[in-house]
Recover the amino acids of this structure.
C-alpha cells in the first residue's frame, strides 16, 4: 500500500468512527428526551441531523475518490466497500433518532402516559447493539459482531410482545389510543435501529473474513 493510500484510508476510518459517535449521541439523547419529556433535548437531536447528513455525504465522496484514484484491492477494497455500507446505516440510525425525537415532542404535548411495556429496557438493549457494532468495527472483532446478530432476534421478539401489549392497552382505554400508537411507533423505530446495527455487524464480518454474513444462521451465536 502506498503511503498516500494509507493516509487516505486512515482518515476515512477516523471519519466513520466520528460519525458513529455522533449517531450514538443522537440516539441516546432522543431516547432520553422521550423518557424524561425533555423537549430541549429532543430539539437538539433535530438540529444535529443536518451535520450528520453532511458527514455521511463527505464520507461517501471520500470513499469514491479513493476507489477512483487508487483502485485498491483485497482488504483495502473490502474496507472501502464496508465503510460505504456502514456509512449509510449510520445515517439511517440518525434519521430514526430524529423520528424518536419527533415522537418525544408530540407526546410532550399530551398528559404523561406509562408505556405498557419496558421501553427504557428495549432502548438500552438497542443502544448497546449500536455501540457493540461500532466496537467490533474499531477492533475488527467478529466475535463481538456475531453477538450483535444474535441480539437482533431478541429485539424482534420484544417488539412483537410490545405490539400485543399496546393492543390490549387500547382495548382497556381507548381515550389514550393516539399516545399508545405513538409509543408503539417508537418501538418500531428501535427495532429498525437494531436492524441497522445488525447490518453494521455483518459488514464487519465481511471486512475481516471476506464472508457475506447475511442470511447465514451459523454466523449467529447463542445469547
Amino acid at each position: 500500500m502506498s503511503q498516500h493510500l494509507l493516509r487516505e484510508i486512515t482518515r476515512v476510518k477516523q471519519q466513520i468512527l466520528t460519525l458513529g459517535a455522533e449517531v450514538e449521541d443522537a440516539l441516546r439523547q432522543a431516547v432520553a428526551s422521550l423518557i424524561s419529556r425533555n423537549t430541549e433535548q429532543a430539539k437538539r437531536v433535530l438540529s444535529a441531523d443536518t451535520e450528520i447528513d453532511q458527514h455521511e455525504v463527505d464520507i461517501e465522496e471520500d470513499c469514491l475518490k479513493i476507489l477512483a484514484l487508487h483502485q485498491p484491492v483485497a482488504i483495502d477494497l473490502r474496507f472501502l466497500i464496508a465503510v460505504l455500507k456502514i456509512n449509510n446505516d449510520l445515517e439511517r440510525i440518525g434519521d430514526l433518532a430524529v423520528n424518536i425525537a419527533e415522537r418525544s415532542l408530540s407526546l410532550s404535548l399530551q398528559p404523561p402516559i406509562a408505556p405498557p411495556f419496558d421501553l427504557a429496557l428495549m432502548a438500552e438493549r438497542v443502544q448497546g447493539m449500536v455501540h457493540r457494532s461500532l466496537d467490533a468495527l474499531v477492533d475488527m472483532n467478529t466475535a463481538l459482531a456475531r453477538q450483535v446478530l444474535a441480539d437482533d432476534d431478541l429485539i424482534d421478539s420484544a417488539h412483537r410482545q410490545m405490539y400485543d401489549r399496546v393492543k390490549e392497552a387500547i382495548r382497556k382505554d381507548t381515550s389514550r389510543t393516539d399516545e399508545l400508537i405513538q409509543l408503539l411507533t417508537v418501538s418500531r423505530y428501535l427495532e429498525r435501529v437494531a436492524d441497522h446495527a445488525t447490518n453494521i455487524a455483518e459488514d464487519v464480518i465481511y471486512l475481516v473474513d471476506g464472508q457475506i454474513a447475511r442470511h447465514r444462521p451459523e454466523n449467529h451465536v447463542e445469547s
